[in-house]
């Protein structure tokens, strides 16, 4: 199973819109997935609620797709809290992960993807080398909350195809 993680706690974010794009493409490809949107769950403490999140979304997954917005030149603290609060061995060790960075700026959160890659490799995860930075995300998403930019859609499809072979 693949778990798509929308890596921000902000409701109504572009991060979640991009995560939903990935979910739609996975569904079209017939790939079993779940969506863990950090704006819908409390990951601040390792309590009963968090243990249920681990059981439902993280432990059963062997692959992850993390959509990561730029927060102050890095990745969101809520994503770091989720990683820190989890049972690292059960949740992350030797699992595969695909990273996509988004920003309204011009670098698509490249620096944040680098920071997160280091943390994930420390957790013994296998990070796919095609880390996709998506820039000017606010201009790529239409009024219907979907990406209509063909080069971006093509890049996401290519990234997903590569990840399935990884």
Task: Describe what you observe in this structure.
The chain has one domain (2-165): 3-Layer(aba) Sandwich (Rossmann fold). It is 43% helix and 17% strand. The chain has 7 helices and 6 strands, in the order βαβαβααβαββαα. The chain is globular and about 40 Å long.
Runs in which pLDDT lies below 50 for 5 or more consecutive residues are: none
Coarse morphology:
globular
Instruction: Report Rg.
Output: 15 Å
Q: Under CATH, the topology is which?
A: Rossmann fold
Largest sheet: 6 strands, parallel
Q: Just give the CATH class.
A: Alpha Beta
Number of helices: 7
In total, the number of strands is: 6
**Total number of distinct structural domains:** 1
The CATH homology group name: Flavodoxin domain
Q: Work out the strand percent.
A: 15-25%
Distance between the termini: 14 Å
Oligomeric nature of the chains? single chain
Class inferred from helices and paired strands: alpha/beta
The string of secondary-structure elements, in order, is EHEHEHHEHEEHH
The helicity comes to 40-55%
Q: What number is the mean pLDDT?
A: 96
CATH architecture classification: 3-Layer(aba) Sandwich
Features:
single chain; 166 residues; alpha/beta; Rossmann fold; 6-stranded parallel β-sheet; 7 helices; 17% strand
Provide a brief overview of the structure.
The protein is an alpha/beta fold.
Topology of this structure?
Blueprint: E1 2-6, H1 14-28, E2 33-37, H2 48-58, E3 63-69, H3 77-85, H4 88-91, E4 96-102, H5 110-122, E5 126-127, E6 132-134, H6 137-140, H7 150-165
Parallel strand pairs: 1-2, 1-3, 3-4, 4-5, 4-6
């Amino acid at each position: 199973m693949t778990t798509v993680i929308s890596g921000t706690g902000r409701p109504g974010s572009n991060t979640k819109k991009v995560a939903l794009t990935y979910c739609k493409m996975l569904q079209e490809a017939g790939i079993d997935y779940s969506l863990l949107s950090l704006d819908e769950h409390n990951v601040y403490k390792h309590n009963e609620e968090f243990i249920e999140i681990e059981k439902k979304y993280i432990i059963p997954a062997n692959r992850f797709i993390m959509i990561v917005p730029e927060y102050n030149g890095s990745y969101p603290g809520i994503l770091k809290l989720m990683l820190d609060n989890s049972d690292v061995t059960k949740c992350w060790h030797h699992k595969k992960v695909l990273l996509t960075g988004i920003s309204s700026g011009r670098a698509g959160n490249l620096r944040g993807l680098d920071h997160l890659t280091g943390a994930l490799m420390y957790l013994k995860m296998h990070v796919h080398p095609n880390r996709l930075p998506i820039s000017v995300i606010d201009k790529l998403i239409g009024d219907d909350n979907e990406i209509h930019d063909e080069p971006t859609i093509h890049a996401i499809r290519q990234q997903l195809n590569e990840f399935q072979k990884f």
